[in-house]
């Protein structure tokens, strides 16, 4: 197209209708030329869709596509089908005959436009049709719904013809006021931008029929008083209102729109970086000009007014690139400029390293050749980009660095722009938060996280063959290395690995997450001394694919607005390890014993692979004898504030007892989760061999205590809680031990006494009101003399507690006291509990009241005062002889001076613990210590 005369209308000097006619003709000429370019790039069937669209909205005929009912709005303003369109309609339906309307009928379809890449340098065979259907604002809700249904039918018909079409209903009146309910392009971020969408519309739209945009007739230098100019055009009838469509102006773009548009492009760039980063750069160019912004659509309009109507110069993608080039060039951002050029090259998608199709060079290719010549690109650069579909790890990793830098820069630019100008849009703060988390999940590195390398860079990163090697670094630490190709041992030193990791599963998860290994990849293994077999390696990959299929579903905003939480968890047990073959263990208890051991005792390592609600994949490894409880602790801790437990799968690939180990571990994790779920202060006891592991739910965390043996367990169970702490035993913990019977009986607000006898020795156990355990061995004569002193002590303690704190609830202050006798097991019958009545006292009981008062002394030592039948014995008076003096008094009052044990019948701890309520187990511990001192003095 050639250069024509410059038109410069001035409102105050009057407007010539001939000038307006000339302008309209120029815009329509550019439009026709672009439309012709769009048709040239389409198949015959796609061309038919585009040519017929105006007719299908103008005519409502049952035999044509898109027919809904006789009342569906139809009639495109000022449209008269040409011979080619009627011929296309008859090819589609031979019985169709067009009958022009008689008289003036309603024409509710005011305008029909295409917007996007059609007719531009970026159009290809996959470009979709974004169609704006501008309708009469007077249509009622029923008519709009019928029109929407017509659009859905036309979309389906277009798809059947090989065209992806999207139709958007536009009320020009509401749109001009900034009101719209839906997206207006398939690449639209919704209501957060209006003017930038209008800018894109004005510079890319193809007019298909109906009224023309009134914006065409307002000079770019009059944009600041657009409304005044338009009012004059209409009032003085320079243009007729029914010939034009007013969608608004670009006089001033609010800063919040740059944020909204930028956020949308950043969001899309995570999955489709090249197309979106190009648009993001244009948003940055615009934002950097604020408030003196001049949209590219105004340059487009100015060029037409000046008669510069050469299509390549007016191409919206070329104009956008040139603006980006000027901006980045002025800043010296050469790396970012090269990225912008790659984005444009890949968007145009005309591979210059290959000959043109059918030896016919398209106008897009010719234009791209001129551009890349100016960029000084060579054949090597063309070959690299044209081969992007085959890029593998090395090239993708290099490109990822550039893309991540750009994404990070874009996010920081928008954040800074928002703060600096206090730019607000309806969802700015929310979207910034969501996008920040989306970027964090996609690109941020952290311990244990599997890095996502392929950010929409290559469609397929699977390698044909790989070599996996286990060896040691210079410091003697284990490492796993992954090499490209099928290498022999001598060749390894000549190649650099694709990836190294200290943990095998972390490396394999990286391969799976990034699609480096698929079912067709040939994987060679050099296991070293790891014990990993090829069968185990292939089984591991197979289960990773089944449990965590790729690609992952997109993360919705609601998930990102909440803290991340685990959604799927894989536990991989003993990878590369066989517990029956481990030298230290096998030599200790024998291989056959190992084969018969409890499955949980055979867990030597756990590799946990977690996929969370932000689609982050994390790998954590646990090794050694505490691997299972540590993994269990972290797993349960991650479920804090999680409503629904993640999907848990456990795998163990060991040849010996692998399935049994996996089933048992899964059982432990599920039992522990249910035991501690929503239970305040809950505890769970796991036993592995002779070691015990106590998990306890506290205010903000889960505490894990390792207990080396049964004695350590008993000491831990005797610690005071000051609140009821339910205890759940793993189903295999303390198997065959009477302690399991006792601990299973815990009840809040209840004192439970358990006893068993063995000859002249009895064992007393008490579970107090908070479920703490106290245990003592005593000489046994009969049941009454064993239990009555304890009963008297507990009653005195409860009486004292009740008197000291009358405000406490009865349940806490005065709990029930229950007694159980432990009946030992016989043969196959396990031990059982027998409920017993509380021991009854008699008038001639040979027991004296022995009361103790314990107070805090100096240097952290406590001071004890004893009362024997109300006679005071103070440490201040007797010093080290205190307990001997008391025992002499007790013995002197017994018949024949008998020397059976002494018992404390009452104890006051308020001088030690203050007025706060002491727990029963604390009273019992002090009671046992005092009684031990008294009885030791008696024996001496």
Automatic annotation (TrEMBL):
Superkingdom as given in the UniProt entry:
Bacteria
InterPro entries recorded: Adenylate_cyclase_1, Adenylate_cyclase_1_N
| Example GO molecular function | adenylate cyclase activity
* Residue ranges annotated for the Adenylate cyclase class-I N-terminal domain, each copy included: 20-216
Q: What is its EC number?
A: 4.6.1.1
Q: Does the keyword Lyase apply?
A: yes
Q: Does the keyword Lyase apply?
A: yes
A Pfam short name? Adenyl_cycl_N
Which keywords accompany this UniProt record? Lyase
One biological process term from GO is: cAMP biosynthetic process
User: What NCBIfam families does its record include?
Assistant: PRK09450.2-2
Q: What is this protein called?
A: Class I adenylate cyclase
Q: What is the lineage of its organism?
A: Bacteria, Pseudomonadati, Pseudomonadota, Gammaproteobacteria, Pseudomonadales
């Amino acid at each position: 197209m050639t250069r024509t005369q410059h038109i410069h209308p001035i409102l105050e000097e009057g407007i010539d209708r001939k000038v307006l006619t000339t302008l309209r003709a120029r815009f329509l000429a550019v439009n026709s030329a672009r439309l012709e370019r769009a048709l040239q790039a389409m198949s015959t069937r796609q061309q038919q869709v585009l040519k017929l669209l105006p007719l299908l909205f103008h005519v409502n005929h049952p035999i044509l596509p898109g027919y809904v009912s006789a009342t569906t709005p139809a009639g495109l303003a000022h449209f008269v089908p040409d011979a080619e369109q009627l011929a296309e309609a008859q090819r589609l339906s031979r019985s169709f005959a067009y009958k022009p309307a008689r008289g003036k009928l309603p024409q509710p379809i005011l305008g029909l436009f295409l917007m996007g890449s059609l007719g531009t340098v970026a159009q290809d065979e996959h470009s979709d049709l974004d169609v704006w259907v501008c309708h009469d604002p007077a249509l009622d809700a029923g008519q709009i719904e019928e029109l929407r249904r017509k659009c859905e039918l036309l979309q389906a018909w277009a798809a059947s013809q090989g065209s992806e079409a999207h139709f958007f209903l536009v009320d020009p009146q509401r749109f001009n006021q900034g009101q719209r309910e839906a997206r207006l392009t398939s690449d639209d971020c919704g209501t957060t931008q209006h003017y930038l969408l209008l800018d894109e519309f004005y510079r890319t739209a193809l007019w298909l029929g109906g009224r023309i945009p009134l914006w065409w007739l307002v000079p770019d230098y009059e944009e600041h008083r657009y409304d005044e100019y338009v009012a004059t055009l209409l009032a003085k009838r320079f243009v007729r209102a029914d010939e034009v469509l007013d969608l608004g102006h670009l006089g001033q773009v609010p800063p919040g729109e740059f944020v909204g548009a930028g956020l949308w492009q950043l969001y899309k760039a995570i999955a489709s970086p090249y197309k979106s980063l190009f648009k993001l750069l244009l948003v940055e160019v615009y934002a950097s000009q604020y408030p003196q912004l001049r949209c590219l659509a105004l340059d487009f309009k100015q060029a037409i007014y000046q008669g510069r109507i050469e299509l390549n110069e007016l191409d919206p993608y070329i104009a956008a690139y040139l603006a980006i080039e000027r901006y980045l060039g002025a800043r010296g951002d050469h790396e970012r400029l090269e990225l912008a050029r790659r984005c444009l090259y890949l968007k145009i998608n005309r591979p210059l390293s290959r000959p043109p199709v059918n030896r016919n060079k398209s106008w897009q290719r010719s234009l791209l050749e001129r551009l890349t010549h100016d960029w000084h690109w060579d054949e090597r650069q063309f070959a690299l980009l044209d081969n992007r579909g085959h890029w593998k790890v090395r090239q993708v990793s290099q490109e990822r660095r550039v893309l991540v830098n750009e994404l990070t820069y874009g996010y920081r630019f928008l954040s800074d722009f928002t703060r600096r100008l206090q730019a607000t849009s309806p969802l700015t703060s929310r979207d910034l938060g969501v996008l920040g988390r989306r970027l964090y999940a996609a690109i941020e590195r952290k311990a244990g996280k599997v890095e996502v390398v392929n950010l929409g860079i290559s469609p397929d990163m699977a390698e044909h063959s790989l070599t996996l090697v286990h060896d040691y670094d210079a410091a003697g630490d284990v490492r796993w290395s992954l090499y490209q190709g099928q290498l022999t041992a001598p060749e390894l030193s000549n190649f650099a690995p694709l990836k190294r990791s200290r943990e095998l599963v972390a490396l394999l998860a990286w391969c799976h997450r990034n699609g480096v290994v698929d079912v067709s990849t040939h994987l060679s293994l050099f296991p070293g001394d790891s014990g990993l077999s090829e069968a185990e390696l292939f089984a591991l990959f197979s289960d990773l694919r089944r449990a965590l299929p790729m690609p992952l579903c997109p993360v919705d905003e609601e998930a990102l607005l909440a803290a991340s939480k685990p959604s799927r968890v894989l536990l991989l047990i003993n990878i590369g390890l066989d517990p029956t073959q481990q030298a230290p263990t096998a030599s200790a208890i024998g291989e056959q014993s190992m084969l018969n051991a409890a499955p949980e005792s055979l867990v030597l390592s756990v590799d946990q692979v977690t996929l969370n609600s932000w689609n982050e994949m994390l790998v954590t490894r646990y090794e050694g004898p505490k691997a299972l409880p540590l993994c269990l602790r972290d797993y349960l801790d991650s479920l804090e504030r999680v409503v629904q437990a993640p999907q848990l799968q456990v795998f163990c690939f060991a040849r010996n007892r692998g399935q049994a180990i996996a089933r048992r571990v899964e059982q432990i994790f599920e039992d522990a989760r249910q035991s501690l779920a929503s239970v305040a202060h809950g505890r769970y006891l796991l036993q592995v061999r002779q070691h015990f592991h106590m998990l306890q739910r506290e205010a903000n965390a889960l505490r894990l205590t390792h207990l080396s043996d049964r004695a350590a367990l008993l000491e831990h169970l005797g610690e005071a809680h000051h609140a009821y702490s339910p205890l759940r035993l793993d189903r295999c913990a303390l198997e065959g031990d009477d302690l399991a019977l006792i601990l299973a009986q815990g009840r809040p607000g209840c004192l439970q006494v358990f006893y068993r006898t063995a000859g002249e020795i009895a064992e007393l156990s008490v579970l107090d009101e908070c479920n703490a355990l106290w245990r003592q061995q005593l000489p046994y004569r009969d049941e009454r003399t064993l239990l009555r002193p304890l009963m008297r002590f507990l009653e005195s303690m409860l009486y004292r507690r009740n008197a000291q704190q009358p405000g406490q609830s009865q349940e806490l202050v005065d709990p029930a006291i229950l007694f159980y006798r432990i009946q030992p097991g016989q043969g196959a019958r396990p031990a059982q509990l027998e409920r017993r009545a509380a021991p009854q006292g008699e008038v001639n009981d040979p027991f004296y009241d022995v009361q103790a008062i314990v107070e805090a002394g100096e240097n952290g030592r406590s001071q004890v005062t004893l009362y024997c039948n109300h006679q005071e014995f103070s440490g201040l008076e007797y010093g080290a002889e205190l307990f001997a003096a008391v025992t002499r008094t007790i013995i002197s009052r017994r018949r024949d001076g008998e020397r059976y044990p002494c018992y404390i019948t009452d104890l006051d701890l308020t001088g030690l613990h203050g007025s706060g309520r002491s727990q029963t187990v604390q009273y019992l511990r002090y009671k046992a210590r005092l009684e031990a001192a008294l009885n030791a003095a008696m024996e001496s």
